[in-house]
Amino acid sequence: MSARYQAVRGTRDILPEEIGRWHRLEAAARSTFERYGFREIRTPILETTELFARSVGGSTDIVRKEMFTLQAGDESVTMRPENTASVVRAFVEHNLHRTVGAGFPERLYYVGPMFRYERPQKGRQRQFHQIGAEVLGAPEPLCDAETIEMLWALLEGVGIRAKELRLNSVGDAACRGVFRDRLKAFLEPRLADLCEDCNRRYAENPLRVFDCKVEKDRAILESAPTVLDALCEGCATHFSEVRRRLDGYGIPYVVDARMVRGLDYYERTVFEVVSSGLGAQNALLGGGRYDGLVEELGGPRLPGFGFALGMERLLLVMPEEPGDRVATDVLLVGLGAPGFEASVSMARRLRAAGLSVTMPLAERPLGAQLKRADKLGARFAVFVGKDEIEKDRYGFKDLATGEQLELPEGAIAERVAAAKGTQR
Ligand code: HAM
Q1: Which residue puts its alpha carbon closest to atom 2 of ligand 1?
Q2: Closest C-alpha among 167, 123, 197, 198 to residue 266
Q3: In the predicted structure, residue 424 carries a pLDDT above the cut 50
Q4: Could you tell me the strand order of the sheet in which 68-72 lies?
């Protein structure tokens, strides 16, 4: 008995037809980030469960409800729900702070899958992919602004037009304490009207009430005090400097005093970029400053700043480009048995010359081969028959325009390269 299976709920296959877009986004991110001095880091998907509880926070939705945690022997490990904690863990574990000097932070970026046990819907999966960047060791507001400017360059570069940058400051540990007291005073008389989760949040970590999705609660929270109003002088100055720098770069933003983000490690600047093309899950990316995290995870007192963008969400609003289809340069069409045999060796030579070449693995009728060319998205067909081999003149057809020439084998690679606008 055979059986058929489907991809696990909330996960999906990325098929060859879509992969060109993924490659383009990744390549744009790599080249943009590298121009700003970032280097790639790859950390494991599995981390100690405790790492996320400590950094993302034990009372956040991510840690409470969304982690894929498994018991491996006597260890509890979790498939990373995000990558900031892992990057900071690696930074501390490998003493990367040794190379950080005043004004010269460590700049790291990553690309890869993350896992959250959430209810799947448009723009929300259980396995999704992030491109992210982290700067470790820079307290300066310029770090925040420059990293956002880099991100902006990436978004513009891949053609994301409908986007809005939302910015806020959640203060540091000291002004957060002041805010917590004000918030508790506001919440206390309203507890009976708030959901059970918010009652728990009130007791454990009041700031997390802003994660609540219940309509009635959200309406109540509309009139809650904002953390922005509770900033100490240092945090207020930092925030206005970030804004001044962004203004200097000409990057538009709105201040959203109610945005606190769903992770506990943030201090001072937090931000999101939302896109109108996305529906309910409209955050393309999110990030912020986390000045206490390196120390919390056993390192020195060094600040951090970063962001991560959701690749699936970004791809939903990224415009198509003609080059997105990964195409084959040449289909070799063998005519008859001698033609087929000759095409086998010609394929090898053309591939060695750098062309991408496809051909059937058995002699096939001409019509069947040309039909395939269309499916494969091949740009050119080269006809290889007995006469052609004898004269070293091959039919070379542009499958988009239908234009056909005759060329010696030695001219094929150059011709294809010229058509692609590249030098070989
Ligand atoms: P986050 O806001 O939890 O932040 O996630 C960042 C982005 O990942 C979101 O804006 C969204 O585009 C995407 N994302 C999150 N969950 C899902 C999902 N279930 N399905 C599809 N896409 C999703 C972080 O992860 C922080 N580590 C960002 C950061 C880096 N902060 C500082 N450094």
Answers
A1: 286
A2: 167
A3: no
A4: 46-48, 75-79, 68-72
The stretch 150-170 carries a mean pLDDT of 96
Percentage with pLDDT > 90 across the chain: 87
Cα(122)–Cα(127) distance, integer angstroms: 13
Are 287 and 120 contacting, i.e. CB atoms less than 8 angstroms apart?
no
Percent of the chain at pLDDT exceeding 70: 99
Cβ–Cβ < 8 Å for 104, 316: no
- Tell me, using a 6 A CB cutoff, whether residue 128 lines ligand 1: yes
Does the pLDDT at position 24 exceed 80?
A: yes
291 lines ligand 1 (CB under 6 A): no
**CA–CA distance, 297 with 265 (Å, rounded to integer):** 11
Q: Does ligand 1 have an atom closer than 6 angstroms to the CB of 132?
A: yes
- Distance of alpha carbon 116 from its chain centroid, rounded? 15
State residue 103's pLDDT score: 87
Output the CA 227–ligand 1 centroid distance in Å.
22
Q: Which two tokens stand for residue 335?
A: 């005519």
Of ligand 1's listed atoms, the one at least distance from the Cα of 130 is 8
Residue 31: burial class (beta carbons within 10 Å; 0-12, 13-18, 19+): exposed
Question: Which pLDDT tens digit goes with each residue over 382-420?
Answer: 999 999 999 999 999 999 899 999 999 999 999 998 887
Q: Is 284 in the pocket of ligand 1 (CB under 6 A)?
A: yes
Separation of CA 185 and ligand 1 centre (Å): 31
* Average pLDDT of the chain to the nearest whole number: 94
Record the pTM: 0.93
- The residue type at 233: E
Q: How far is the CA of 284 from the centre of ligand 1 (A)?
A: 8
Most informative mutation of 12, 285, 311, 318 for ligand 1 (most atoms within 8 A of CB): 285
CA dist list (Å): 124 to 31, 67, 86, 160: 27, 15, 22, 19
First-to-final CA distance of the chain: 52
Residues in the chain: 424
Range 54-80 average pLDDT? 95
Ligand 1 contact via 306 beta carbon (within 6 Å): yes
- Are the CB atoms for 55 and 91 separated by under 8 Å? no
Q: Could you tell me the distance, in angstroms and rounded to a whole number, from the CA of residue 339 to the centre of ligand 1? A: 54
